[in-house]
Amino acid sequence: MSSDVRFTDFKSDAQPTWCPGCGDFGTMNGMMKALAETGNSPDETFVVAGIGCSGKIGTYMRSYAIHGVHGRALPVGAGVKLANPDIEVMVAGGDGDGYSIGAGHFVHAVRRNVDMTYVVMDNRIYGLTKGQASPTSREDFETSTTPEGPQQPPVNPLALAFAASGTFIAQSFSTDAQRHAEIVKQAVEHDGFGFVNVFSPCVTFNDVDTYDYFRDHIVDLQDTDHDPTDYEDARSRILDPGSEYQGVLYRDEDSVPYEESHGVDADMSDIPDGAPEDAMDLVREFY
Amino acid sequence: MPADFNWAIGGEAGDGIDSTGKIFAQALSRAGRHVFTSKDFASRIRGGYTAYKVRTSVEQVQSVVDRLDVLIALTQRTIDENLDELHEGSVIIYDGERTTMQDVEIPEEMIGLDVPLKSLAEDAGGAIMRNVVALGAACAVSDFPIENLNSALEKRFGDKGAAIVENNMAAARKGRDYVRDEYDYEFGYDLECTDENYVLLNGDEAIGMGAIAGGCRFYAGYPITPATDVMEYLTGRIERYGGHVVQAEDELAAINLALGAARAGARSMTATSGPGIDLMAETFGLVATSETPLVICNVMRSGPSTGMPTKQEQGDLNAMLYGGHGEVPRFVLAPTTIAECFHKTVEAFNLAEKYQLPVYLTADLSLAVTEQTYPPEEFDMDAVEIDRGKVVDEETVGEWQDEQGRFKPHAITDDGVSPRTFPGTEGGVHMSTGLEHDELGRRTEETGMRIKQVDKRSRKVETAKEREPFEAREFGDPDAETLVISWGSNEGAMVEAMDFLKEEGIDVRFLSVPYVFPRPDLTEVIEDAEETVVVECNATGQFADLIEHDALTRVKRLNKYDGVRYKADELAERIAATLADDGGETEEATT
Ligand SMILES: Cc1ncc(C[n+]2csc(CCOP(=O)(O)OP(=O)(O)O)c2C)c(N)n1
Ligand code: SF4
């Protein structure tokens, strides 16, 4: 890893096509900062993105990357990491991508605890398909497909992660640049699955969960007496309805990443020219 | 036909049928005899009829026949289910002390041996060994040296300690002695032993072994019959070579995990069966467009939907050839024997990396769960070659960069194959995407580039056809008027069916095709033949459709879709009938 990496090294030359003012700009900048500050270089980083406006991030960042299919970015990220544990893996997606079509993978990625970072750009709406309700949309949020609101409670992603034995659960706000980058950085540094739900407003389709709304409602945990390593404290905050916290809600200091518990440490791209030397032993097992 | 001996044990699921059958098969194999096994099982864990059949000879055997010489029947149903295959003089071993077997009905012309399996087992140390008592009895009937059975018991129970092995050997002896002492028959069987050393394995195991030998280091899968054995084989073995198996939450995750590992540079695989490939179809498109080398193993069973999950069928050919949205090149390899499951797996990894595309490796249920003996040299590890294709490193990456030093993962090349870099390679940074892209991997909708990329991807198929020997395996008389073509597990039955046909005066030329796409051009051989019959285990003739499409001619179809594999003698009869039947285009299957 090179120490002279700057966060702009993670910027590709592609011009983002996000709407001006979209929260995803800030979310991405924070991710790039976190990567650079933790000493990673684009050559040794792999970014996996899902589908949605959020998923375009793979194009705008410069690193090894894949733009996956809708909802399935997490297993791709785990595959990359397990095949080469030396690579820094960061997965990004939207709230629809992660908590709707990809909800199953989310829960299992959390409990698998592979050492990677998952950033969800939560705008509480489907952006790329032009404004339908997402799993984090409010119960009464009117959209083209839910004229009277979804009339179902939104999912609480932090609680999902907590219930799935998450070892690092955090939330941030894309426009609070310093704090956001710092929180993502802690997720990168965490030994295990670092999950950050980012309030990343959609200025085009969501006129409820706006920058102003978040500015007015966010409570930063660093201004409270919250101790993220205290399980009970974390639980009460995570399950607190209507709260909009920023910061690390829970961190398991004893987290053992999957790679360690399963003894996965080889760079699997490195294989012999022919069958392994002792491969005839495999045949002899069948005597 | 070599003199062969056919033996089976049947009962209810949960009776230990499988492991008992396997012990006997192993005993025969250790005695230097060739073995071919087949399993008849229902989709339930307890209850339901289950049988394990063993055919053995001193010569290679590669199919089942309609004949049973010795049957160990743990239930009346075992006898009823196999009546057609039992013949005059067949021996049925049963336990008349067992309540359900007291009024057992054994046809007059057969020999029923009432052996108190349970009480003899109890005498030897526990009722649990009653199946081993039965194996001992079978040794007496077939004049098979019990030492060979002991050697298999040692292999099977060695881990559990000497006492357990001893007890089992005692149980076997009791079974043998009981038959010798109580029944004064000349059974007429003599299972000759040889000094050969064979290995006994099934298709799934051969695929797993081929994967490790072929450099596969990452496997992700979700359990499904009959593909699970591949995952079970790799678990606990692949780690020895620095690899890893992940049991994913579903097939969508499995293929995506495998895709991620492949992008990181690992030789990577997933295995599933019919419903699983449907779930993987969306990601399949991404694998193909992002030009990721991936081996997807589909062990076919009876569909559609959950169909008959424990039964034979070759019904997914169209799904593999045409499945998924849009148009993307993929290869489909279909090994035709258990040994070939090994060789084709190695080849699948090489093809996937050389051409950077998804490769379906498909076995049918019969191939996957059936065991057969081979001389170990058949799996020659020294002959395994690994070709990783156009992998570019820090020294050579410069040749594949544009003026701004950007790597071109989708460079337009004459052969359709672009360079590859693994993460960690300086100067090789790039993004892969399922969106249509330019040479750098950047999204584009520009017509010219769209056409260039589509053509580039499909050019790989032409290149492969030129470079790779996608040939059929040929058997029989090249000048015969009748041509039979088949794929998958039908090869074994067909090879043996040719002997039966010869006796009837019917000569055939037989082609077994392990490459479905790209496949050998059979137009000329079909033109040379008077009659062509395509044999397969499905209702519509999916492979026959391809042959007709290639050769622009009609062929006769022999289809079987009752969930049971072809037996050699049955296949011979049906081919003879098909040839005799001049009126109809196709022969309808018996189901
Ligand atoms: C299998 C599949 N279903 C549906 C879609 C269409 N689709 C594209 S983006 C999207 C929603 C994305 O919403 P979200 O994840 O919240 O991301 P955002 O665009 O808001 O950033 C949908 C439904 C798709 N690409 N693939
Ligand atoms: S639609 Fe919303 S989420 Fe998408 S780019 Fe525009 S502002 Fe951002």
Please characterize this protein's 3D structure.
Chain A is an alpha/beta fold. Chain A has one domain (7-286): Thiamin diphosphate (ThDP)-binding fold, Pyr/PP domains (Rossmann fold, 3-Layer(aba) Sandwich). Chain A contains eleven helices and eight strands. Chain A has helices spanning 24-37, 57-60, 73-83, 95-101, 103-112, 157-163, 177-189, 211-217, 231-238, 258-261, 280-284, and strands at 45-49, 64-67, 88-94, 117-122, 168-173, 194-199, 219-220, 245-251. The longest helix of chain A is centred in the N-terminal third of the chain and has 14 residues, at 24-37. In chain A, 56% of the residues are buried. The mean pLDDT of chain A is 97. Chain B is an alpha/beta fold and 591 residues long. Chain B folds into four domains: 4-182, Pyruvate-ferredoxin oxidoreductase, PFOR, domain III (Pyruvate-ferredoxin Oxidoreductase, domain 3, 3-Layer(aba) Sandwich); 201-383, 3-Layer(aba) Sandwich (Rossmann fold); 397-466, no CATH class; 473-580, Rossmann fold (3-Layer(aba) Sandwich), CATH 3.40.50. The longest helix of chain B has 21 residues, at 162-182. Chain B is globular, with a radius of gyration of 26 Å. At the A-B interface, strand 1, strand 2, helix 3, helix 5 and helix 11 of A face strand 7, helix 7, strand 8, helix 9 and helix 10 of B. Residues 18-19, 22, 24, 53, 123, 127, 202-205 of chain A line the site of iron/sulfur cluster.
Quick recap of the structure?
Chain A is built from eleven helices and eight strands. Chain A is of the alpha/beta class and 287 residues long.
Give the total of domains of chain B. 4
How much beta of chain B, percentage-wise?
15-25%
CATH architecture of the largest domain in chain B: 3-Layer(aba) Sandwich
What value does the average pLDDT of chain B take? 95
Shape of chain B: globular
Side-by-side strand order of the widest sheet of chain B: 9-8-10-11-13-12-19
Low-confidence stretches of chain B: 583-591
Radius of gyration of chain A, CA atoms, in whole angstroms: 20 Å
In whole angstroms, the N-to-C terminal distance of chain B is 28 Å
- How many strands of chain B? 21
Assembly type: heterodimer
Report the CATH superfamily of the largest domain in chain B. Thiamin diphosphate (ThDP)-binding fold, Pyr/PP domains
The number of helical elements of chain A comes to 11
CATH topology of the largest domain in chain B: Rossmann fold
Q: Given the C-alpha coordinates, what overall shape of chain A results?
A: globular
Domain Pyruvate ferredoxin oxidoreductase beta subunit C-terminal (chain A): 202-263
InterPro entries (chain A): 2-oxoacid:Fd_oxidoreductase (IPR051457), OFOB (IPR011896), PFO_beta_C (IPR032686), THDP-binding (IPR029061), TPP_enzyme_TPP-bd (IPR011766)
Organism (chain A): Haloplanus rubicundus
Pfam families (chain A): PFO_beta_C, TPP_enzyme_C
